[in-house]
Amino acid sequence: MENSVLTKKLSRLGRLGRNILKRFMYSQMAIYSGFKIAIGKDHPLMQFKIENDPPSIYWVYRIKPSEIDNLAQKLRIPPQFTLCPIRCLNTDEPAYLLTVNAYRVSGLAKGLRAEWSIFVRDSTNTPRYMIVDARSSTSSMDPVNIITKASTVIHKREGNVIHTQIGEGEHAFTSTITLPDHLPSVTSSAEWVTANDYIYWGNGICDRTFYNAGLADARQSLLDSKNSVIKDGTFWSQVVETDPVYILKLNNAIELVVSPWENVG
Predict the structure, then answer these.
(1) Where are the alpha helices (DSSP H) in the chain?
(2) Of the candidates 243, 220, 254, 226, which has an alpha carbon nearest to the alpha carbon of residue 88?
(3) Is residue 110's pLDDT more than 90?
(4) Could you give the angle at the alpha carbon of 142 between the alpha carbons of 141 and 148, nearest 5°?
(5) Which end of the chain has less Cβ packing within 10 Å, N or C?
(6) Residue 233 falls within a domain, yes or no?
(7) pTM score, two decimals?
(8) Is residue 29 domain-shared with residue 153, that is, in the same domain?
(9) Rounded to whole angstroms, what are the CA distances from 199 to 41, 61, 240?
(10) How many domains does the structure of the chain reveal?
């Protein structure tokens, strides 16, 4: 009985031919895709990897009750969005939250980044992240300012201590976290994860993201506030309660494919 084509032995010459064909075929597809992007018939897809060293840290804060009703107006958020409560962990009740996230990234952007985000409902009535402040250790791009100028973002791990500094002087956000030997594992709520499907910016432009289990089922640990020292001189300290509800440490890298500025054009 003859072998199926799918199990036919591959010769050295056959491998070489397939290698040449692969390079040619996919290079032509990439050129065609680039042409479609240039004429507005397709969207770019870019790799975006959140590294696991130093680990990505989320400081999750409750928004002050006195700020909830007027915050959207204060931040000049487009009127089609409304602030919404969300569950961070799957054991939570929904609450109005603001997060600070510091991480190292490669791919579409590079270097250290820090972002402040709130949660809003979009036109489909689905909770989404909205980035309201972004800092980067290297120059990058964002749809609000076009160029994100390089600024002070320090996020490093030295032994069992994670040091973070965003900004300078009295207006900086600083955090020193001492990691204990054992940390409890926690699971994000489903809506916390899917909020990443479309990440909005303060002017209404969004990045569409595609992710795998690295984010959908992220390995993350809960840090006790008693193991951290936080000083917050930023504008955002006026909006949130003094102590974070949670400090979360991601224990794995997260690989994303991003369609930047997806709703433009």
Answers:
(1) 12-38, 65-74, 190-194, 213-216
(2) 220
(3) no
(4) 55
(5) N
(6) yes
(7) 0.87
(8) no
(9) 22, 19, 21
(10) 2
